[in-house]
Amino acid sequence: xxxxxxxxxxxxxxxxxxxxxxxxxxxxxxxxxxxxxxxxxxxxxxxxxxxxxxxxxxxxxxxxxxxxxxxxxxxxxxxxxxxxxxxxxxxxxxxxxxxxxxxxxxxxxxxxxxxxxxxxxxxxxxxxxxxxxxxxxxxxxxxxxxxxxxxxxxx
Length: 155
What we know:
CATH architecture of the largest domain: Sandwich
Number of helices: 3
Shape: elongated
Largest sheet: 4 strands, antiparallel
Strand content: 25-35%
CATH topology of the largest domain: Immunoglobulin-like
Radius of gyration: 26 Å
Order of helices and strands: HHEEEEEEEH
Helix content: 10-25%
Structural class: alpha+beta
């Protein structure tokens, strides 16, 4: 596997440390990613998203959804059955799992619901007003000179 040195990026940019961290995290991850449980990520609107995780066999009490340091952690652990069961075929996996999703800045979890074996987690991107693009009016130089002349006349 290739390794990349991000030191030149840190020297030449200001405030882009997070991009280098994300790239480093992506490149150092193991090739074998967990595939259980399966999930979907859908964009439901311009700034809203939904993560749907297939959690057949898990109840709401067996599941946990937490936000820690810009990452969403979904975990599940099935409570031990009180009675021993004898299966002829066991195709529904109920093993413990933990899924992590990296959240971008200004993305917050608005809710979670468990319905028909699916855990749905709703997310919304809320960009602060200070970071939204704003239009700056361009004034002519004559208007600025007029204000200066008016100020001199008052003094």
